[in-house]
Specification:
This protein is mostly helical and 220 residues long. Helix content is 70%, strand content 0%. Helix 2 packs antiparallel against helix 3 and helix 3 packs across helix 7. The two termini are 13 Å apart. The model has no long low-confidence stretch (mean pLDDT 90).
Length: 220
């Protein structure tokens, strides 16, 4: 793919995420269902954090596209590849897969029907569906250098534990779980659910690495 098309893709994706994040932030002042934005606002939701993550990656990618000469060894390019391979791809895919799996089983556990009044269907899909094709598109438009697996998994583990502590802190502070599903678990069940989720994210990291190698090995 030409550099011009790659630049257009990155700028378009970045602009899309800016639009979605601004649309969500604008909801903060509205009369939402009880508990939606209490304590921490949207910052306690993995979906919102993932949107910020995707937006951060694509702005780095857009800036990297502007670099003259050889880019592969630049610090900016290395940061961009690390962000995509370790976080943007596996976390973004995880949000889509887990959300729709739980939604199909019982939407009240993750996205109660009362929310539909405030977040129209297009916004739900913007947060929980379109992330996947945008990420797959990125795999196709540009190769990415993957770090050593042990370093990647260590970084994922630190971030995963940090988010777990954050949502537990929210619960201990206001007595409301970020996601209704979590209220159905015992302490042991919550720990087991966390490790299950981390195993899924780890698998998605490996999948991203395999996809990247498969696509760009065939092209070269």
């Amino acid at each position: 793919m030409t550099s011009t098309l790659r630049r257009v893709y990155h700028i378009t994706a970045f602009s899309w995420y800016v639009f979605i994040v601004k649309s969500l932030a604008a909801k903060d002042g509205e009369e939402l269902p009880p508990g939606i934005f209490v304590y921490g606002g949207p910052w306690k939701y993995l979906t919102f954090l993932n949107l910020l993550l995707q937006m951060s990656f694509f702005v780095l990618a857009a800036v990297s596209d502007l670099q003259p000469g050889e880019k592969s060894e630049s610090t900016l390019n290395k940061c961009k590849d690390f962000l995509f391979s370790v976080f943007a791809f596996p976390v973004g895919m995880f949000v889509v897969l887990l959300f729709w799996t739980i939604f199909a089983y019982d939407r009240e556990l993750v996205y109660p029907a009362t929310i539909d009044t405030f977040f129209p269907p297009w916004m739900n899909h913007a947060m929980h569906t379109f992330v996947l094709p945008v990420l797959l598109g990125e795999v196709l438009v540009q190769p990415h250098m993957y770090p050593q697996t042990k370093h990647a998994l260590a970084a994922l583990g630190v971030v995963g534990l940090s988010y777990l502590f954050w949502i537990v802190w929210v619960y201990l502070s206001v007595g409301i779980w970020v996601y209704p599903l979590l209220g159905h678990f015992s302490t042991a069940g919550l720990v087991g659910f966390f490790f299950f989720n981390m195993s899924v994210v780890t698998s998605l990291y490996v999948l991203g690495d395999k996809l990247n190698s498969y696509v760009w090995r065939k092209r070269h």
